[in-house]
Amino acid sequence: MKLLLRSGVLLLAVQLLACTQVQPWERGHLARPEMGLTTDPMASTLRNHIHHSKEASSSVASGSGGGCGCN
Amino acid sequence: MNDKRSSTLLALTAAALALPMASEPAKADPPDQKFTLGFKQSNYKEAPIAADQLGLGSPERYTIDVSHLKFKAPVSTDTELTTSVIRETMSGASPWYVAPGADGEALQVMSGATISEERTELGVDFRSYNSNSEVTLSGGYSSENDYESVSFGFSGAWRLNQNLTTLSYGANTSFDYIDPSDAKSFDRPEHETKKRAAAMVGLTQVATKTTLLSATVGFAMLDGYLSDPYKRAFVAGSTVRDSRPGQQEQINLNLSLRQFFEGPGGALHADYRYYTNNWEIDSHTLELSWYQNLGNDWQLTPTLRYYDQSAAAFYRPFYETTRTDGFYSSDYRLSDFSAVSGQLKLSKTFSAFRVDLSYENYKASGDHPGLLEYDLISLGLGYAFE
Amino acid sequence: MKRFSQSLTTMVFGLFLAASTQALETGEDAPPFSLPGIENAAEGQAIALEQYQGKVVYVDFWASWCGPCRRSFPKLEALHQKYGEQGFEVIAINLDEQEADAHKFLDEHPVSFPIAWDPEGKVAGEYQLKGMPSAFLLDRDGTVHHVVVGFNEKDAAAIEAAINQLTKE
């Protein structure tokens, strides 16, 4: 749990530093497909399924965000 | 060993494949108003078990062919519906129990002949998007001859701070019904059920023009029959049913980094996951990928994955005496092991068409004689139209 | 735990404060600009807002990587064709860092209105864009009449109604 809290605080701190820098029109690189959290959902489905069935661990879900930030 | 028995032994691995969840991570961008069709054909093949670790049975293990078809269609300007079908055909043998050899070494006893098994999975996602938030409702169903699973999920995201910050959340639940074949003849349980409920929250932040950071925390609770009906454990000279606690709590923490490098024109993905459960299994997973753009819309992606887990409190390869709590499992998935895998993927995008080919090799190492090595080959096709 | 939750609260508030920068609003005068034209503009000549005085102008900010921009271009072209004779003009300001990316997009989505290039986002900064795409519909006096962030069918209908009204004024 401690690790968890620490990582949370760290992430938020990084965000605060970074906050206002990236403008909506500066997301050209972030909008690239390879900059997504998940780049190939069908491949992820398959690999997660295999890993989940061969290892004790499983993941609840991954997050979302990033991308072109378009409205 | 007769065919029927092999068939059921075969089904056990499939049973353990209970769906984590049919849902997919929420997307960041608005619906593209396009129809997209995706198809992936994969072949998964486990390496035969080494002769010096095999106690009895066939050294050949699983081969699985997986066909996955997915179709996304816009419903209105801000909603879309995704449906998917997965069909798996499996054949091979699987670990049954572990017995001590002449020198006290652990030897894997395998099931026998090669038989075929099938699994079908259906999934539906409905996504609704608006300028500051979105939600996705999901449903899934999986069926094979001795296992059925139904799942429901709800996930969403809020975009804050000019879309630089995304707060995501989700909850899902599944209900599984397990009805092992030939239960009476082989001392297996009948009509068992299992429930799972899980929730997650996550935060994703655009840190710079080329950096994306993400953290998610997930909790899951499992309740019901969590043992493997087709596995047995060797206890003081005879074998007993695989028998695990009827409840499990899990926590996982995921940290992700996406970094674009303008010089080489590529992106680095770094993902770390910490997992712990109340059976005393802790695990660490680190995955690194490099997406190299090669020009003309070709892309080459090498991936390295390292996984390490500790054993469940009650796990032993075999038991010399009985346990007071009555829990026994010699499943390699509950043992102390680490695994390394390497993957290489090549993809090419045309204007509306996409094709990719990937190869992965996975190798686990530890004390259990049944630990896996496998190869995975996938061919993916994608097509988008309006 | 208490200290943690306090610092968490501070940070979350910080995020919201950072988000509340002011955008250019309806009723304000559109900041003037002059940018190089990269398509449908005279060779070597800048595209300046002042050249469009007395017209109803749709200033559109876009980039090749922006998904909704792809859908907006055919619609803007149609509006440009339909209301051009009534004094309606579109100026599309591209924000790609590489000019080639803009041309690739324009080859796939050809239009007849002028395209200006603002690779460093200078004008985008003056217009304080809140998202991509962003557009500002200016009346004949150069006053912002309508601000559009994002682009979908509903937006398109509202934009056309506004253009229809403004060109009659």
Structure characterization notes:
- The complex is a heterotrimer of chains A (71), B (386) and C (169).
- With 71 residues, chain A is mostly helical.
- Helix content of chain A is 44%, strand content 0%.
- Chain A has helices spanning 2-18, 41-54.
- The model of chain A has no long low-confidence stretch (mean pLDDT 78).
- Residues 1-26 of chain B have low confidence and may be disordered.
- Chain B has one helix at 3-16; strands at 35-46, 54-56, 63-76, 79-92, 95-100, 106-110, 115-130, 133-144, 147-160, 165-178, 192-208, 211-224, 232-235, 238-241, 247-261, 266-277, 282-295, 298-309, 337-349, 353-366, 373-385.
- Chain B has a 16-stranded antiparallel β-barrel with strand order 1-3-4-7-8-9-10-11-12-15-16-17-18-19-20-21.
- The termini of chain B are far apart.
- Chain B has 386 residues and is mainly beta.
- The radius of gyration of chain B is 22 Å and the shape is globular.
- Chain C is an alpha/beta fold and 169 residues long.
- Chain C has a single domain (2-168), classed as Glutaredoxin, CATH 3.40.30.10.
- Chain C has helices at 2-19, 67-83, 99-108, 122-126, 153-168, and strands spanning 34-39, 46-48, 56-62, 88-94, 115-117, 134-138, 144-149.
- In chain C, strands 2-1-5-4-3-6-7 form a 7-stranded mixed beta sheet.
- In chain C, helix 2 runs parallel beside helix 5 (153-168).
- The longest helix of chain C has 18 residues, at 2-19.
- The N and C termini of chain C lie far apart (62 Å).
- Residues 13-20 of chain C have low confidence and may be disordered.
- Chains B and C meet through loops of B and helix 1 and helix 2 of C.
Topology:
The complex is a heterotrimer of chains A (71), B (386) and C (169).
Chain A: H1 2-18, H2 41-54
Chain B: H1 3-16, E1 35-46, E2 54-56, E3 63-76, E4 79-92, E5 95-100, E6 106-110, E7 115-130, E8 133-144, E9 147-160, E10 165-178, E11 192-208, E12 211-224, E13 232-235, E14 238-241, E15 247-261, E16 266-277, E17 282-295, E18 298-309, E19 337-349, E20 353-366, E21 373-385
Parallel strand pairs in B: 2-6
Antiparallel strand pairs in B: 1-3, 1-21, 3-4, 4-7, 5-6, 7-8, 8-9, 9-10, 10-11, 11-12, 12-15, 13-14, 15-16, 16-17, 17-18, 18-19, 19-20, 20-21
Chain C: H1 2-19, E1 34-39, E2 46-48, E3 56-62, H2 67-83, E4 88-94, H3 99-108, E5 115-117, H4 122-126, E6 134-138, E7 144-149, H5 153-168
Parallel strand pairs in C: 3-4, 4-5
Antiparallel strand pairs in C: 1-2, 1-5, 3-6, 6-7
